[in-house]
Write a structure and sequence with these properties.
- The protein is mainly beta.
- It folds into two domains: about 80 residues, Chitinase A, domain 3; about 50 residues, Thrombin, subunit H (Beta Barrel).
- About 10% of the residues lie in helices and about 40% in strands.
- It contains three helices and eight strands.
- The strands form two sheets. A four-stranded antiparallel beta sheet has the order 2-1-8-3. A four-stranded antiparallel beta sheet has the order 4-7-6-5, with no helix packed on it.
- It is globular.
Length: about 170
């Protein structure tokens, strides 16, 4: 195991869970490693990113977050109830994200939170709004980032080699 610690310019891979402090239930989790270059891009809340500094691969940390400070208070004007028949069928599924735009051209994501035969409820509040959660992070890898990774903000994935596939012409991407 490497003894490198997380600092600016380090490539980091981790997984995490967001746990509701009241119920202990897992609200969301990332099972596949999330890779990023520390100090180059912010992939998680600033309070979580700062707690990662100085940690090493193999460590598991827990960071309590009051989501009211991140997302503000719940805004009931962002909860919309529509008659089911007025909502396109593809949006009648709980958990569906709907990107909406206001008259000024600003966009906001709303989530379908309830569907029955009479109504569909969509909510523009962040699902973590007014919750107290714990980010439980498992650090899998810490190493120096390459110049290319620093520029890109994360790991550079190689696409499949298609040069020998008949009928396929590869074009370099700049």
């Amino acid at each position: 195991m490497s003894n490198e610690t997380i600092a600016d310019g380090k490539y980091v891979e981790l997984t995490y869970k967001v746990i509701d402090q009241k119920s202990g239930g897992v609200l969301t989790q990332v099972e596949y490693p999330l890779g990023y270059v520390h100090g180059t891009n912010e992939v998680l809340a600033p309070a979580v990113m700062s707690e990662l500094e100085g940690k090493a691969a193999g460590e598991v940390i827990e960071v309590p977050i009051d989501c009211s400070k991140l997302y503000g208070p719940r805004d009931e004007s962002l909860v919309i109830t529509e008659r089911t028949q007025d909502v396109p069928e593809e949006y009648r599924e709980v958990g569906m994200s709907i990107l909406m735009e206001n008259e000024q051209g600003q966009t906001k994501t709303f989530i379908v939170t309830h569907v029955d035969r009479r109504s569909v409820i969509i909510d523009g509040n962040n699902p973590l709004c007014e919750r107290e959660v714990i980010f439980r992070l498992e650090i899998l890898l810490v190493r120096d980032a390459s110049d290319e990774e620093i520029e890109y903000g994360g790991k550079i994935e190689q696409g499949p080699d298609l040069k020998d596939v008949e009928g396929v012409t590869q074009v370099p991407i700049n």
